[in-house]
Amino acid sequence: MESISSDIIVENPPQEMMKTKPNDDELGFGTEFTDRMFLQEFKGGQWQTGRIMPFQNFSLSPAALVFHYGQAIFEGLKAYKHPDGSVALFRPEKNAQRFHRSAKRMMMAPVPEEFFLESVEKLVALEHEWIPRKLGTSLYIRPTMIATQAVLGVKPSEEYYYFIILSPSSAYFKEGFSPVKIMVSDKYVRAAVGGVGDAKTAGNYAASLYAGYLAKKEGYSQVLWLDAKENRYVEEVGAMNIAFVMDDIIYTPPLRGSILPGVTRDSILKLAPDLGYKVKEEALAIDVIEEAAKSGNLTEVFGMGTAAVIAPVGELKYKDDVMVINNGEIGKITKDLYDNLTGIQYGTRDDPYGWVKKIQI
Ligand SMILES: Cc1ncc(COP(=O)(O)O)c(C=O)c1O
Questions:
Q1: Which domains does the chain show, CATH number per domain?
Q2: Considering the entire predicted model, what is its pTM?
Q3: Taking a C-beta distance cutoff of 8 angstroms, is the pair 223, 242 a contact?
């Protein structure tokens, strides 16, 4: 299932089709797309030659398997413009690995990791003028794979589209880098151990929408999920992993198969100890967090994700208990981690970890 053809064919859009690039100050998240996209088809047991082509619609059979049984996976990473004008990705090999793992879990044709990287780099290089410069903005990269075989019946597709689209974007939350309000779901769950919670597959997000809608109705930005078995242990938030600072220790739930292994989470687990913070991967019961909030030991809560970066949480609601964190303000540790992580990503701080990957433009 892994054979690849070399070389990507490039078909540039005609000049008159090129769109006007938005100003950095006018950007939303994921609302505008660049002039080109990447597409590669899997059929006949192998990957066909990849193509970079004008951004365009697909024409798929209504019987395509993705529409019926949900074989769809995706990734999310960002390209940054550094002060010297160079273009950088952040740990793209981690996304390549996760895309590969997600494909295997969903019985889809895995994209070889080196080919994932080549396709991302080549497309971003051609579209580098779309990368915004302002801190907090970036070119969001969305590699995706869908099952395209036109046949009904629950079985793995024999044909796929692997494609990449790019979106110049600002902060994920409308609040920007300021505290968000999160509601703990005490009724609905996102994923169970043994399910597909650790794969980045579309159905996980569809399954999260109803609880997200209920949270929004009450004025909360996202849902914090609890485990499916006991409905007690904290898992993750809609689009980010979560960390709690209690007694000056940063706690985050361990990876047990039901939460997404985030690249940002992994980076914080490495970065924080080097900045002098103690970190622990530990199962955290919501009642323990409530207790810590009451006693004043819960001093900061923050989310970690590519889109959201480091998102301070100013309020957590669980049942009738409203926990205001750090007076609803950004905590010291949260800010320090944000500054250091974005400093590496935006090229204003040293990168002792080799996380930044410059691409040839
Ligand atoms: C459910 C979920 N958890 C966590 C994350 C954070 O992962 P990463 O840091 O790799 O973006 C994301 C974002 O991709 C996500 O969708």
A1: 9-169 (3.30.470.10), 180-345 (3.20.10.10)
A2: 0.96
A3: no
